[in-house]
Specification:
It is built from 9 helices and no strands. The protein is an all-alpha fold and about 180 residues long. It has 2 domains: about 20-135, no CATH class; about 140-170. Helix 3 packs across helix 4 (about 55-65) and helix 7 (about 95-120) packs across helix 8.
Length: about 180
């Protein structure tokens, strides 16, 4: 009986620090966590936070479904880098407690600091950065502008058609009378 109680206490002393050393955000993948990874990347073209491994892989799988994202964006590569950094920081030799802070900062410091300083000093790029979508589910601004132009073109075509129909109902315009000189 005493041996069982001693084994239970020893297991408890070993299990509690090991469980508390892992950050809560990286231990379990939640439903839709892939969207959080993509939204984190959309913020500044890098993944700043640490997520569960399944979240990274789900996000990469979702992005790979769209060929335009593969061809014109580095999102899948950046998320893959963040995944590898997360796995490296939580490996058997490293401590999980410091992994959360270094993986986000590590991936951001390699490409993010140079981009951040150039975008803040360049007013044109800051205008383009402000036009970026705020999340993966928002409608991109260029798509809204193109939709508005398409609606205006349709309205002008309908207006032209209506004007021609009204003019056709009135009949032909009589020619002005010309005096004959003899």
């Amino acid at each position: 009986m005493m041996l069982t109680a001693l084994a239970a206490c020893t297991a408890l002393l070993v299990a509690v620090p090991a469980a508390s050393a892992r950050p809560a955000a990286t231990s379990v993948a939640t439903k839709g966590c892939w969207l959080a990874v993509i939204n984190d990347w959309l913020d500044n073209s890098r993944v700043d936070k640490t997520y569960a491994t399944a979240c990274y892989t789900q996000a990469i799988q979702r992005l790979n479904q769209y060929p335009d994202v593969q061809n014109y964006s580095s999102a899948a590569d950046d998320i893959q880098r963040a995944l590898l950094a997360s796995i490296h920081d939580r490996g058997p030799g490293g401590s999980s407690g410091t992994g959360g802070g270094t993986s986000g900062g590590g991936s951001g410091s390699s490409g993010g600091s140079g981009d951040g300083s150039s975008s803040s000093s360049n007013p044109i790029s800051s205008v383009f950065d402000s036009a970026r979508p705020s999340s993966a589910e928002s409608i991109p601004l260029p798509l809204l502008v193109l939709g508005g132009l398409a609606a205006l073109l349709l309205l002008s075509a309908v207006g032209t058609w209506i004007a021609r129909r009204i003019q056709a109902r009135r009949g032909p315009v009589p020619a002005p009378a010309v005096e004959k000189r003899s």
